[in-house]
Records
---
Amino acid sequence: MDVKIDILTLFPEMFDIFNYSIIGRAINKGILQINTFDIREFTRDKHRKVDDYPYGGGAGMVMAAQPIVDCIRKVKCQNNGKVIYLGPRGKTFNQSMAKELSKESEMIFLCGHYEGIDERVYKYIDTEISIGDFVITGGEMACIPIVDSICRMIPGVLAKSESYMEESFYNGSLEYPQYTRPECFEGDNVPEVLLSGHHENIKKWRRMKLLVITKNKRPDLFQKLKLSTEDKKLMDLYEKNI
């Protein structure tokens, strides 16, 4: 599966990060394409301006419609994907959204800046995504983790599907604890069950820990989990032993 992601931005160099590590390897294998388009290249202003003062007054500058729309039109000639704007009006990004977007073969991400974009650009946008109720310096900061989260679930990007299927949030919960060598570090030992070689017991222990950690750290997530009969037994066993 060859997935194409085009990113429209004022700062293409910020996305050099995708040339490294897991995403970089996926690009080299031809599984994934990530291209950047500099919105400044599409402005008709001789000084390469892409922003202007807002009508009606107010602080800050607004990204102008013309360079953004012309950039979108150019990219649309070679990418039929949805135009996704990183902005504050959008739904807050989560793992469920990452799963759905990882099924798309083509996507276009638009990174806003300054005080936002000219309202007339919205007619060219298919969906808007936010990373939370806080202010950042530009859409690039939101785009990087969103694209990374999506890409790691594209088939072939990770070595095994289990690498992401057991991670925090994939199934609506946090992840179980992980340990590696040495067996004892500063008097703190790896739990015996993980050294036992008994795969069924290890599976149950991990499931119990996953549930307990989610309940303690993120009760909002825990309340949404559909606990099986086995899950309830594991939680009862934990409650009895604490």
Note: The mean pLDDT is 94.
---
Amino acid sequence: MPKKSLFFEVTPKSWGEAKSIGTQLKGCIFRGHEEKNWRLSTSIERAAKQFRCSPEAIWEKEKQILHSFKSRAFQFIQSPPNDNNFIEWLALIQHYGGLTRLLDFTESFYIASYFAMEAGGANDACVWAINDNLILSKIGQKVEIKMDKDKYYPAYLEGIRHSAESFIQS
């Protein structure tokens, strides 16, 4: 597998070959699609396209969804995130089936493969593999800081989180 490539395409002929490829993709993050021609797009982008929403309207809708979810969250979430932690709120909305700008990836080739194949359709499924190590190495030096008991948070991602939060807040 190309170590320096951010993206590449491989079409395995069997599940055995797919597993072999998956084991060679260390340092990648994965997303499974039941149709190989599907683009990487979020649930809110897909809904906006379906209902012919403008980009400005998408983010207004997301603000409405966020406000509505936050106002009802106390009914089903014991420990909701801080009010201004938008990424955690969006993750919760997505977890409960709501539309968000977030796109799920996994570090497991097998989990992504499951989601690619779960519909069992006649279409050619695909697993997106993105070279996370190469992307992150371009961001800067990897330094870890201890946040909670056994959780480590890469310090170099803090700037990305703050940047993402600023886009969501506006």
Note: The helical segments are 15-24, 43-50, 55-72, 86-95, 109-117, 132-139, 158-169.
---
Amino acid sequence: SEFLAQILKREGSLVGNEKVYVSCEEGARKSTGTLYDKVRAHLNPTHWEHYGDHPISDVKQAREKGIIATQINTAFTESEKTLPDYSKRHSYELSCLAGLQRAARIANGNNAYSALAADFVAPAYIPYVQFVLEKAKEQGLKRLYFLSRDSYILQKIAECKQSEFPDIELRYLFVSRKALLLPYLQEPTAAKFLAVQDKQTLVGKYVEGLLSSLATSSVELKEKFATEFEYNRITNKQQEEDFLNKIFGEKSNFRNHLKKTATEKRELLNAYFTQEGLFDDCEKAMVDVGWLGTTRLMINSILREEEQKDTHFFYYGVRGDVLDNSHGIFYNYFTPQELSTALTTMVENYFSASPYPSTTGYRVENGRVVPTFKEGESVKSNRIIDTNIAVCTYIAGEIPHTATQKTDMLRTWCKCATETMLTLKHSDIDLSPLCNAETFDGKPFVKILSTKELFNIMLLGGRCTAFDKASIKLTTGRLFGPVWKICRITGKIRRFLYLRFKAK
């Protein structure tokens, strides 16, 4: 009791000379109720409330003694308990990190939101930020730009480590593929437009979506430029060539208008880049999440045309067909084989939740260039964003005090968390907060599935949400294991039939 009293006073839980009762000293136990009897005989309380984590000792026995009892869950989650076993080499350090995850989770409400943030978001992103800062220092980089929107939380984590890297300046940059496309097309050509398309093709894309990215529409093209398309979606190379000729060809009625618009957008972007120091003579790099590199291509293309040096890029993950170093040097934390599509949607939708909407362009306001957002959208936060940032910054701030910043150990921590999220192997992972994430490509990110949707995924391989595996787990609960096994079996059957049919 004397030792425990010192700890309780240090933590502010014991403010006077209150007596501390310990079972071994009193010769009585909570589990039998005898310790409660001893305390009552000594203190004779008129009102008694008891808080504890054991359902028998702290709740059942207390209530039988007429005490108001509340159970407190401060136990480790399954993810936290199994973390030290993931690597024998780093077992001690991982146990320290598991303790930090638990502490951050409890300090931030001990709920489903803080559990996801502590057990998955923090270990996924803190090691990446450490990698970025160490690599930047090694390369002599003096400034890092964290790209809107996905890198907002990455900057918040980096700010917690600023004292360890005082020579590296951290800035936030409002850019997006949409905001960069027209400035990049100041000299509009079909080749440049194709270069920033996924897989360098327009086949499979909708005409209206492509025109929207060029700040026009089929109605405007018809009325102002006498240009029409006989198709809504490009389904073959002939239609692709027709589209490119009507927009970028020498006989295009629209090309001069596009060039004028792009030039105006380029002037605004150059003013924003100048204002934010991108044209400064200092070694700099961009920090992004990934995956293909079109933002890198466009930014470095613009910098080269303005006779500026390339900027380096950092990526959390990349695709197998990532654009090569000819568009600017990049460093990736994960290789293409290490991250599945399911995790990339999780990273973009949940891990990187940001208060900022996507940047659509720029305008001048009170002598400064500021970003513009889609009409009706504004800067706003929510529970996911607030919790992710609070938990990640808590853990990032505490890690230096635990001597656990070895690069290979942090990477092990990261890989354990990402693999656990992908497999969803622990039964106590509460996925309900994922239902509140933003939609992804027009689909709900995660939701409770209807019976029809569940069977569509299980038997036909349909896609109902961006992260179907999580939706299945949330819907089926304890039956998730058998249901997911059925999904895998039917998937193998469909693949076998497809390959056999294709061969014929």
Note: The radius of gyration is 28 Å.
